[in-house]
Design a protein that fits this description.
Blueprint: H1 24-31, E1 43-46, E2 52-56, E3 63-68, H2 73-85, E4 89-92, H3 104-115, E5 121-126, H4 130-136, E6 144-146, H5 150-158, E7 164-168, H6 174-186, H7 193-203
Parallel strand pairs: 3-4, 3-5, 5-7, 6-7
Antiparallel strand pairs: 1-2
Helix pairs in contact: 1-6, 2-6, 3-4, 5-6
Length: 212
């Protein structure tokens, strides 16, 4: 049965990486009601020069690309169904079954769709989330991050302007994954000093060892 992003969030989330007294309550609060406004009124995307550019308000619903290997197939399906139920436009790059497959074959087109502007955000899934995140980050302009906790998902948006989230199906249940995705989609980039750091990070893509 499709798991809607609007379903009631779990009241007992076992998140071992959240330290006592951390921002769990604040993060879970963000998972609830979708934001209609923006943080400082803007969100940012990469332009071809590697500089962060302002693109205006956070749009909701969004165009989202999604992909997974065989290990992430079931979780991908649940997430995609929930996103569509909430009105998002979802492009599914596969895989489309549980037969053994190679995660770069699916992470790459998801990342390319984000990089070329066909999608606003990307979601990739494998057993651990690590393989798909590494593959996605090989695409110019992509900042993919593995979701380990609510606080880290929030920070990777606010501080790193992540545009692709990677999920590990072996370690993330469907309800937690749903909430990670919701937080990832609704959290804006803070800009400011973080924008300077993101610009420096993206300039590393221009590194050419032959010119060193």
């Amino acid at each position: 049965m499709p798991l809607s992003l609007r379903t009631k969030k779990s009241s007992n989330i076992n998140n071992k990486r959240m330290a006592p007294g951390s921002s769990r309550v604040r993060c879970l609060a963000l998972v609830g009601k979708p934001r209609s406004s923006t943080h400082r009124g803007q969100t940012r995307k990469m332009d071809p020069t590697g500089e962060v550019r302002t693109s205006g308000k956070l749009e909701y619903p969004m165009k989202i690309s999604i992909g997974a290997d065989h290990a992430g197939f079931a979780l991908k399906q649940q997430i995609a169904d929930a996103l569509r139920e909430d009105g998002h436009q979802v492009e599914d790059f596969g895989t489309y079954g549980t037969e053994s497959s190679d995660y770069p074959d699916f992470a790459a087109p998801v990342a390319r769709a984000v990089a070329n502007g066909a999608a606003e955000r990307g979601i990739v899934v494998c057993a651990s989330g690590i393989g798909v995140s590494i593959a996605a980050n090989k695409i110019h302009g992509i900042r993919a991050a593995v979701a380990y906790s609510f606080e880290e998902v929030e920070l990777t948006r606010r501080h790193n302007d992540a545009n692709v989230i990677a999920l590990g199906a072996k370690y993330t249940d469907a309800d937690t994954a749903r909430q990670y995705v919701k937080l990832f989609l609704e959290t804006p980039f803070d800009g400011g000093r973080h924008e300077r750091r993101v610009n420096k990070m993206m300039q590393l893509e221009n590194f050419n060892p032959e010119k060193q």
